[in-house]
Amino acid sequence: MRFTTYNAASDAMFVRLQNDPLDWDFLDTLLSELMMLPTLSEQASLFCRELCAHFKAQTDRLLASVTPRHAHRLLNVFTSVANIQQKVDGNTSSTLRHYVNAIETGIRLSPPLCSGTTLTFRDIILASWFASVVFSTLPPSPEPNNILEAIQNRACTNHLPHFDNTSLALVHAVHHASDSFINAMLDSTTGTLPNVVLFPDQAKMLLTVVFASPHTSHVWAALHSGQLTYEVKVATSSALLTLARRIQEGALIADLCLDIPHCSSDALVLLLHYLALSLFPSASAFNDTGVVLCGLSSNVVPNTPRVASGRDVARLYYEKGLQIDPTHPHLLSNFGSLLKDAGHSTSAVG
């Protein structure tokens, strides 16, 4: 099947979308066909907007007819639409919001996260930033309880989010907190939210801490169970990395409409990589995070008591990635270059 006109594609798509259950395979094929077209026009952008409007209500909430079982399929639709619109319009606010829609789909439709609170991408970003800042004051540890205790202790001051002796998870506390707690995280020298250097094991458990409660032993079950959840994690991780790449290419943070003041592009890109790796610690995610860390300026929150630069920690990410895939070409090349730059040419790999 190859559609040569957007009108034909649009008409066929909306007829098929009336089916119950929805023909997800048809929709995936349709979007793939659009991506393969050599040129795209404003009609393609209109097609994308109509498609997303079908899945979203005017209140910006996902339609209830999309079930958790299809969360990863809907997530992929939003990501595909974003990629198509990016070819047409570039990194516009509308394009970037489709990536955010994809990420929020994984948050809102995963069964363990369904609740009365509608969590947003902004909630995840701020809670992860807060947890990362606390991480940066602790030595590497595989145990989240120490991190949660530190968060709880720190939450008593500086208008940081607090739990009020409930089982409220950090991300929900941030959702209900006032924006004044952002000021407590600002770098005093730059007045911006900091670049935070995390060790690989800390980055891997970031979302476990964000969704864990300080008053219960249960952590985010969605990180540990089921093929469905695996598919959601992989798709969400991919959307996070793609969004980070768009920002690296010059997309404006303001176009994300996050309403997070004092947020730099470099710091947000690094945090997006941590989140992607936390969801799905693939060899490629370790490689991409290492590359970002290598490019950091000296303006970072170092991990104490072990003070380490971005390049120092990037080596750890490359090593972790090579444990997963020892033949990954980009990891081998980047790790070899890092070793060579450090004067270890005899031990460089690749």
| Broad structural category | mainly alpha
Helix fraction, binned, reads 55-70%
Instruction: Average the pLDDT over all residues and give the rounded result.
Output: 74
Order of helices and strands: HHHHHHHHEHHHHHEHH
Largest sheet: 2 strands, parallel
Strand order of the largest sheet: 1-2
Let me know the number of strands: 2
Number of helices: 15
Description:
The protein has helices at 6-16, 24-36, 42-55, 71-89, 93-109, 121-135, 144-154, 170-176, 200-204, 206-211, 227-248, 265-279, 283-294, 310-324, 329-341, and strands spanning 195-196, 300-301. The protein has 15 helices and 2 strands. The chain has 350 residues and is mainly alpha-helical. Helix 2 runs parallel beside helix 4 (71-89), helix 4 (71-89) runs parallel beside helix 11 and helix 6 (121-135) crosses helix 12 (265-279). The model is unreliable at 58-62, 216-225 and 301-306 (pLDDT under 50).
Secondary-structure map with pairings?
Layout: H1 6-16, H2 24-36, H3 42-55, H4 71-89, H5 93-109, H6 121-135, H7 144-154, H8 170-176, E1 195-196, H9 200-204, H10 206-211, H11 227-248, H12 265-279, H13 283-294, E2 300-301, H14 310-324, H15 329-341
Parallel strand pairs: 1-2
Helix pairs in contact: 1-3, 2-4, 3-4, 4-5, 4-11, 5-11, 6-7, 6-8, 6-12, 11-12, 12-13, 13-14, 14-15
Descriptive key words:
350 residues, mainly alpha, two-stranded parallel ribbon, 15 helices, 2 strands, 56% helix
What's a concise summary of this model?
This protein has 350 residues and is an all-alpha fold.
